[in-house]
Amino acid sequence: MTDKVRVALIGAGGMANSVHYPSLAEFDDVEMVGLCDVVESKLNETADRFGIEKRYADYQQMLEETQPDAVYVLMPPHHLYDIVIRCLESGINVFIEKPPGVSTHQIRWMAEFAEKNGVIGMVGFNRRYIPLLELCRDKVVVHGGAMHQVVSTFYKWTEAPMHPYYNGAVDILTSDAVHAVDTMRFLADAEVTKVASSVRSLGMKYDVAFNALVEFDNDCLGILLSNWRCGGRVHQFEMHAAGISAFVNPNYEAVIHADGEEFVERLDSKQVAGSDENFKFYGFYHQSRHFIDCVKSGQEPLTSFQDAVKTMELVDKIYQSGM
Ligand SMILES: NC(=O)c1ccc[n+]([C@@H]2O[C@H](COP(=O)([O-])OP(=O)(O)OC[C@H]3O[C@@H](n4cnc5c(N)ncnc54)[C@H](O)[C@@H]3O)[C@@H](O)[C@H]2O)c1
């Protein structure tokens, strides 16, 4: 590998333009060597914006001509699998968004192919890289030792469409509430032992509310609160350890209580990240930094394909453990 990590990009859609390519564009040690999208207008607009010269409608041609070290595959989950496997088989490190395919089966095989080909696969569970969340987690663990209780909340409002995500290709828990499931695992920092859950459709043709109690092997209890028929988007976390609690909404702030005090510290999400740009204070920038560092060092990422299998297995258990 030269001094710069040569990154090829597949997908010129919303997430690519709003968070991932702006992050990569700020790294001195990254060269964006080619961009592929099947929609010509999106391809050209995005390539112009990020100064990318080589443009393709066919990703296989891009991989052959640019010979990248890594590739970002940024498209809806039901289109990922074949492209990801082809990249891994070509010996290229791969970054994908969440969810990592449409089933545990798919991410298990992506992980298998990454290992077989000696390359890194990473999933964009960006909440784990949010500076405020990381800081609070460190403070809680330093003060109180291992977490004994975490609450992972994700509420949204959907206007009752006929189907869940992507014309029904993926269910809500796998596609989106999975962020709360993954962050719960991250905060508990242990293996799941037991799950009790409630999965409800609330009058819709598909499931919209996913609530669960999850026991971990370090005695931590995880509580998942997620519901897509609520008043609006609220995504927040509670962390509790002996003598300390943090209540964190990464869009705004965290409040920490310790040793019986009603209030100890208030932390502003943007101040902690040193930026009021969403892609920086909401974890995307630090996530890409971690991926590039792992590509350079060969280290397994925090949110590797292998680790994402565990998050998807917990999604399965939540469906299987309904009351
Ligand atoms: N982490 C988060 O908070 C978050 C938020 C929103 C979406 N996402 C995830 O990001 C992913 C991408 O979502 P998006 O909204 O950016 O999608 P999008 O639909 O806006 O963009 C996908 C792009 O891929 C292109 N494309 C499709 N098939 C292609 C092919 N074979 N070759 C080349 N280009 C192809 C499309 O033309 C489109 O431009 C999804 O998995 C979604 O779940 C994550």
Entry summary:
This protein has 323 residues and is α/β, with parallel strands linked by helices.
Question: Can you put this structure into words, describing what you see?
Answer:
The protein is α/β, with parallel strands linked by helices and 323 residues long. The chain folds into two domains: 5-126, Rossmann fold (3-Layer(aba) Sandwich), CATH 3.40.50.720; 127-274 and 306-313, Dihydrodipicolinate Reductase, domain 2 (2-Layer Sandwich), CATH 3.30.360.10. Helix content is 40%, strand content 28%. The strands form two sheets. It has an eight-stranded mixed sheet. The radius of gyration is 20 Å and the shape is globular. The relative contact order is 0.16. The chain binds nicotinamide-adenine-dinucleotide (NAD). The site of nicotinamide-adenine-dinucleotide (NAD) has 23 residues, from α1. Residues 10-16, 36-39, 42, 59, 74-77, 79, 97-98, 124, 126, 175 line the site of nicotinamide-adenine-dinucleotide.
Question: Which characteristics define this entry?
Answer:
single chain; 323 residues; alpha/beta; Rossmann fold; Dihydrodipicolinate Reductase, domain 2; 2 domains; eight-stranded mixed β-sheet; six-stranded parallel β-sheet; 12 helices; binds nicotinamide-adenine-dinucleotide
